[in-house]
Amino acid sequence: MIAVDCEGVKLSRFGSITMINIGTHDLVYLIDILKIVNSVFDNGLRTILEDSGIEKLMFDCREDADALFHLYKTKLDGVLDLQILEVNNRAHEYRNGYTKPRSFKHCLELYVKDLSLLNIKLQGQARMKILSAIWEKRPLDVNMLKYASVDILVFLNSMMHFVLIWFIVSGKHPQVGIVTLLDQKTGCSVMAMASYQKA
């Protein structure tokens, strides 16, 4: 399982991807798409992102998927969207069958509770408000590199948190099922994790 996140300006088919961040529990790779451009996709990145056998943790991957598909002809597959997983973990809070998805910042505050990571995110967001095209600037500021790395680290920690919460609440070992959803706009599949108990 890897964590994946894209950075860019107006991240979508109408904007740009300037960096793709991929990581494991041990390492985070920040891939500078502005410098490498298409060659990184042709030399293996597209294969990884499209491989349904490689689970990819992302948070609200809609804009990332839209940009990857339309700008680089890369169809994300095998994505476990943590925003959907977080909503699933709050199923008991549903009112009339509906609950509002939480932002990444809100989830970071609720589940990770690491003030240093939260401060890195807040400082980065403040810089992006001042300079909207900050992701196109080279060399990138060290603080923005840290900002890009935080998402990857938090995705992996959040995944463990959600599985642990299920275990604590239910008192039983989770049986995890993956439900594949199809994004009609991009044609990309997104996996949502559903926890259930064997009968």
UniProtKB/TrEMBL annotation:
GO MF annotations, alphabetized: 3'-5' exonuclease activity; nucleic acid binding
Lineage, broadest ranks: Eukaryota, Metazoa, Spiralia, Lophotrochozoa, Mollusca
Keyword terms, alphabetized: Membrane, Transmembrane, Transmembrane helix
All copies of domain 3'-5' exonuclease, residue ranges: 2-156
Biological process terms in GO annotation: piRNA processing
Protein name as catalogued: EXD1
Pfam families membership: DNA_pol_A_exo1
Transmembrane domains' residue ranges: 147-169
